[in-house]
């Protein structure tokens, strides 16, 4: 799942005038404030750039679209997931390795949790983001599938890697859905429990 830029989480006091956004984190902060007030569908790229005090060129330097902004640096996070999987010791079973990596990948410092919750609430609830989410989840799942296939010495189209890739994604999404339903829930604990049950079942 997607991880937010930590610096975007700063709870900054309101400023007078139009602040000039010069970073990905600042653009996300401005955009999410607009989404909170008006709803995702009602906010345009022009609204975001106007509120941030920048031009469209600056926006599109960081994001291909408004949908892409919600996901943050998704390509960077896919690379991070690959790096985590590459460091897993061979002594761990495939499912234990995936449990360890997915929990670590989705661990956040306490001060970043509110921002991540806002991001994931949009991703999992806004209908206009669902098609885009499917494509991004596919890319995330393919990394898991490739890892399993490599571990098992199988092609990525074989049943075992494809099945595990889909199950791991579904398990992660289920944990996130439960987390978003309860503000007091701990995401790490939910993921740990979900993957514990998955490992025991497999």
Automatic annotation (TrEMBL):
Gene field: mftR
Domain annotation HTH tetR-type: ranges: 21-81
Bias-annotated ranges (Basic and acidic residues): 1-14
Protein known as: Mycofactocin system transcriptional regulator
Any Pfam family the entry gives: TetR_C_14
Keywords: DNA-binding, Transcription, Transcription regulation
Superkingdom: Bacteria
Binding region for DNA: 44-63
Keyword NADP carried by entry: no
Residues annotated as transmembrane: none
UniProt xrefs under InterPro entries: Homeodomain-like_sf (IPR009057), HTH-type_TetR-like_transc_reg (IPR050109), HTH_TetR (IPR001647), MftR_C (IPR041347), Tscrpt_reg_TetR-type (IPR023851)
Keyword Cytoplasm: no
Cleaved signal peptide residues: none
Chain positions covered by the region annotation Disordered: 1-23
């Amino acid at each position: 799942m997607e991880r937010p830029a930590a610096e975007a989480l700063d709870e900054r006091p309101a400023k007078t005038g139009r602040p000039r956004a010069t970073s990905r984190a600042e653009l996300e902060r401005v955009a999410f404030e607009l989404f909170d007030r008006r709803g995702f569908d009602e906010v345009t790229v022009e609204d975001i750039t106007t509120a941030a005090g920048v031009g469209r060129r600056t926006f599109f330097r960081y994001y291909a679209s408004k949908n892409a902004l919600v996901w943050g640096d998704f390509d960077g996070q896919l690379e991070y997931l690959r790096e985590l999987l590459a460091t897993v010791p061979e002594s761990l079973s495939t499912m234990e390795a995936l449990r360890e990596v997915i929990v670590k990948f989705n661990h956040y410092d306490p001060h970043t949790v509110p921002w991540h919750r806002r991001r994931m609430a949009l991703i999992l609830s806004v209908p206009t983001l669902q098609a885009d989410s499917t494509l991004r989840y596919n890319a995330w799942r393919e990394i898991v599938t490739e890892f399993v296939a490599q571990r098992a010495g199988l092609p990525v189209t074989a049943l075992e890697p494809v099945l595990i890739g889909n199950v791991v994604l579904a398990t992660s999404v289920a944990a996130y859905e439960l987390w978003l339903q309860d503000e007091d829930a701990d995401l790490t604990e939910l993921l740990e429990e979900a993957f514990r049950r998955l490992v025991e079942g497999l």
